[in-house]
Design a protein that fits this description.
CATH class of the largest domain: Alpha Beta
Number of domains: 5
Radius of gyration: 35 Å
Number of helices: 21
Bound molecules: flavin-adenine dinucleotide
CATH topology of the largest domain: FAD/NAD(P)-binding domain
CATH architecture of the largest domain: 3-Layer(bba) Sandwich
């Protein structure tokens, strides 16, 4: 049983097999071709890819046959330069930002590095033909040209088998079309002598879009967008190839290596992990080559996946760590521990400059040329935590912060995370999904993917995956007509049920106690009953009051601050009969309509009712409304204190605390408007 099986020995399969081999795992990699492909596809690679190649031991060998890619010109049909994109000779990694290359040279270097690893078995000429899950891993059937069949078993299998991936198909993972599809001709030449041509030029000529790019010191490529009427046979016939490149070079300058046609596409696999099977490179995503990132992003997949698989295979992290792979690597689109754990997973400390440390666990680096010093200065930090795939996990202002940051990293690596009282255990993906659901809710109506993603603070492609899952569970629906998302039936049922179970008065109890503790004043809660404002809770404050009103009593609607709030926010057809009855029963004095309207209007604009010595002699009162999700007045909270009316500072403090209390309570009841303070 292997630890990992890799299907496909293209650049991504080679890089992944090499990295897993370096970590010490037993790896087998099968490739349908009997030898290396030996023809170029990728023309350039970036400094991040070079970091991984360096880790694999290929960098020095490669340097002799690649050319640093200094700039990328974008011209119009007349040859005028529209944009000259300049690349750094020394990117953050210390390598040149980009290199031009002849892909077989890169594959030779990678192959040589992988062949040095005794624990990696390369199986050229063996095509993967059947794949199925088995307990604790996967089983792969491979077949060679003679028809011989072999069965391989492994804990994990990674499909690095290119755009038409057998592994992806076998796992029934749809490959989503991102909407780009253009047929292009690709002509590669071996140079007979150096030519004075730009390193890379994109010719934005509507009559014939074209690209010419160096493939390192000995090769050059021209690419042309195909005309709709052209056939591949016609366009790739040598005379037609030369006819197209004649203005730049002739057979005396160079020899044609190959002329082919590719349909450049933009596609992404819907999932990159199905149980113990993962996808990487073109099998997971494809993009047009104009930015030179297809292979580079595949090598980044390999770097990301290799260290995670390593920790999972060594049982230093749970398999859920592999779910972070697509989340982090999705191109349309970050980890705690005791220091002992860090060292046990292979982490180490590197001190840059200063005196050589006495501590045997610390690697010491001399900062030749000040590369590190410059980087640290540019990023205003003193220490940095770097993951095995070179991503900077944390930049720290002080070395003393390292321990804490490593602890956070450990929690993210382990399935369990660090469970403390302040950081109770949770499932991160559910929390992220709930952010997306909250964004759908806050949109207030049908919303687009981009607006939901922006509100949830994530890339649209990531938000899309959560929306798909929320849709499957019925919490979100998507209109087949407009493509907009809205809350689904399950969300509606949940909301209605939550509302049904909600006991506003009980819920308000905690708020009342907090308001009393914060202000020291007596507070009460009133609901609208058959007899008008009815007191349902009373919490004594620290200042003794001359009187307490019994819970269940009705309050005078016009004289009490709570009553006035009902007057302001309930429909007049509800309040008027009660007010009239209170007048008739002598509870309230006769009133003037105009005066009642003015009081109600003042309260509606300030959000607060204030009365002085109206119900209880010597006491002033403030009252404010509590609304529910339907924007209905459901409760009134009042605060009572002696001489509140005369003392502006005390009144202001009490008003602020009261408004904060009713705002928070209303929010908990589903009210979304902002209360005025
Ligand atoms: C014209 C062109 C220009 C490009 N320019 C750039 C560039 O400048 N920079 C850049 O980064 N990228 C570029 N790319 C993209 C880049 O070439 C690809 O992204 C890269 O080759 C993908 O590597 P891979 O290992 O994932 O897949 P592949 O290179 O396709 O390798 C897949 C391997 O799997 C094998 N395989 C398939 N099926 C099976 C099976 N069933 N069993 C066993 N083996 C199997 C195949 O034989 C193949 O060897 C370019 C692509 C094209 C076409």
């Amino acid at each position: 049983m292997y630890d990992a099986l890799v299907v496909g020995y293209g650049p991504v399969g080679m890089a992944l097999a090499g990295l897993l081999g370096q970590y010490g795992h037993r790896v087998a990699v099968c490739e349908r071709y009997p030898g290396l492909y030996n023809l170029p596809r990728a023309a350039t690679f970036d400094h991040e890819a070079m970091r991984t190649l360096q880790k694999l031991g290929c960098a020095t060998r490669l340097l002799a046959s690649v050319v640093p890619w200094t700039n990328y010109e974008w011209c119009n049909g007349a040859g005028e330069v529209l944009i000259n994109q300049v690349f750094s000779a020394r990117a953050a990694s210390g390598w040149a930002e980009n290199y031009a290359m002849y892909q077989p040279v890169l594959e030779d270097a990678l192959d040589a590095a992988v062949r040095l690893l005794p624990n990696v078995t390369i199986l050229p000429g063996w095509t993967a033909t059947a794949l199925r899950a088995q307990v604790g891993g996967v089983q792969l059937q491979i077949q060679n040209a003679k028809g011989w069949v072999r069965t391989l078993r492994a804990k994990y299998l990674i499909g690095c088998d290119g755009g038409n991936s057998f592994v992806r198909e076998n796992c029934a993972v749809p490959s989503l079309d991102c909407g780009f599809r253009e047929p292009w001709l690709v002509f590669d030449f071996r140079l007979k002598r150096p030519l004075d041509l730009p390193l890379a030029r994109q010719i934005c000529d509507p009559a014939q879009p074209a690209v010419t790019v160096s493939l390192g010191p000995e090769y050059r490529r021209w690419s042309f967008m195909m005309e709709p009427h052209e056939s591949v046979e016609q366009a790739t016939a040598p005379e037609n190839v030369w006819w197209r490149v004649f203005r730049w070079a002739t057979p005396e300058d160079m020899e044609l290596v190959r002329a082919v046609s590719y349909t450049f596409q933009s596609r992404i696999a819907e999932r990159w992990r199905v149980g113990n099977v993962l996808l990487a490179g073109d099998a997971a995503h494809q993009m047009p080559p104009f930015l030179g990132q297809g292979m580079c992003s595949g090598i980044r997949d390999a770097a990301n996946l290799a260290w995670k698989l390593d920790l999972v295979l060594k049982e230093l992290a749970g398999p859920a760590l592999l779910d972070t792979y697509m989340l982090e690597r999705d191109p349309s689109g970050g980890v705690q521990c005791e220091l002992g754990f860090w060292q046990s997973v292979g982490g180490h400390f590197i001190q840059v400059g200063g005196d050589r440390p006495a501590n045997a666990h610390t690697v010491w680096l001399r900062d030749r040329g000040g590369t590190y010093r410059t980087w640290f200065e540019q990023h205003s930090c003193r220490a940095v935590i770097v993951r095995p795939d070179f991503y900077v996990y944390a930049g720290l202002l002080d070395v003393s912060e390292v321990g804490q940051s490593l602890q956070r990293l450990w929690a993210a690596l382990s399935d369990e995370g660090t469970v403390t009282e302040s950081n109770p255990q949770g499932i991160q993906s559910i929390e992220i999904g709930m952010r997306v659901l909250a964004a759908v809710e806050k949109a207030g109506g049908p919303a687009s993917l981009t607006s939901i993603a922006a509100a949830a603070g994530m890339a649209p492609s990531k938000a899309h995956r959560y929306l798909v899952s929320l849709g499957r569970a019925g919490f979100v629906t998507q209109s087949g007509y407009s493509g907009l998302y809205d809350l689904g039936n399950a969300a509606r049922r949940l909301g209605v049920e939550a509302m049904r179970r909600m006991d506003e008065v009980n819920l308000a109890g905690d708020y009342l106690v907090r308001l009393r503790d914060k202000t020291g004043h007596t507070v009460n809660l009133t609901v609208w009953g058959d007899s008008g404002p009815t007191l349902v809770r009373w919490e004594h404050g620290s200042i003794p009051l001359p009187i307490a009103v019994r819970v269940g009593s009705s309050l005078p609607i016009l004289a009490s601050s709570a009553g006035r709030v009902f007057l302001a926010f309930l429909p007049i057809v509800v309040t008027q009969p009660v007010l009239q009855r209170q007048v008739n029963e002598g509870i309230a004095p006769p009133y003037v309509d105009e005066e009642v309207r003015r009081i109600a209007s003042d309260i509606r604009s300030s959000g607060l009712a204030v009365t002085s010595q109206a119900v209880i002699p010597g006491l002033d009162a403030l009252a404010a409304p509590v609304f529910d999700a339907q924007e209905r007045l459901v409760l009134v909270v009042a605060l009572l204190a002696p001489r509140l009316y005369a003392n502006a500072v005390a009144r202001r403090k009490a008003s602020t605390a009261l408004i904060e209390c009713v705002s928070a309570l209303s929010h908990e009841l589903g009210y979304t408007k902002q209360a005025a303070i």
